[in-house]
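Help! Submission page says 'invalid entity' but I think these are all valid:
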Amino acid sequence: MLTNKGKYGLKAMVHLAGLEQGALAQVADIAEANSISKKFLDHILTELRHAGLVYSKKGRGGGYALARPAHEIQVGKIVRVLDGPLAPLPCASVTAFRPCDDCRDLKTCAVRLIMIDARNAIANVLDNRTLAELWTLTNPPEHAAMYHI
Amino acid sequence: MLTNKGKYGLKAMVHLAGLEQGALAQVADIAEANSISKKFLDHILTELRHAGLVYSKKGRGGGYALARPAHEIQVGKIVRVLDGPLAPLPCASVTAFRPCDDCRDLKTCAVRLIMIDARNAIANVLDNRTLAELWTLTNPPEHAAMYHI
DNA sequence: AAGGATGTCTACACATATGATAGACTTATA
DNA sequence: TATAAGTCTATCATATGTGTAGACATCCTT
């Protein structure tokens, strides 16, 4: 389940993906444009900065920008930073594996095995989509052209 | 994220899938065999009964059994009964769709669109696996045969 | 009918996570 | 130095998750 934090983080990243080269966006503007509480978004963006996904500058003229090109940032990475592992169960996680306290046998635990499949299916979607694609979804080229007629 | 409730429910259903035709299993036995608190499992099995997935009988000789053949019960159904929609976001849900309070445009919300893909990927896994398959994973035929040598 | 077995219902308690907010502090620029 | 804007620390409220207790209802046997 994607938390509001994860959802807001993705929206903020899409917002930053739409910036012109070299431009910075202030938290307050991102928050307003995406109906997010500024203070909460402060936190979220700080986490993203700690994870190396965004660049920030303090003081006058400051703000945030993507730390890397949008097409180099996988959606799954963003989700993991904010919401943790993609796996529905810790024992099904590739990046944060942890067996159940009462685990008897990893190999024959049917629930684990099917949750690995579920995890892999989720990762297949989220790790194969980039921020640049999200931006395109939000601003479809055809749609934009038609809108201006 | 699969809750303990969802995990325990799946384990209990797998347990019931392994019963002989016509046999009933008592909550206490299922709980012990799967390291689950009996009282918590009471609740879980009652929910599964309300959803029509299990059959129960009170009194002497009572207990639980699957309400339908294991190969007719999709894993996704069980998970939905116990943990709710598979979708990471309510607006990405097929069975329990609900737009975000601040939704501006369903069609161009990139986060929603990618979460629909994620939901579909999850559903593709869980709705295409049955309880009978889970039982086989837990008790692989080859493994069992080798074990008895 | 009573007793025992077993599921079902209602309620409660506690822990954790999430979502949000406030205030102070730090950094950068003019 | 003053102002702008991000960063850190802390707190609070709510929701959810997890689990437990006790009473009640139902079924079967004696």
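Support: the input was valid. A stray whitespace character was the problem, and the output above is from the cleaned input. Residues 3-5, 37, 39-40, 43, 57-62 of chain A lie near DNA strand C (CB under 10 Å from a C1').
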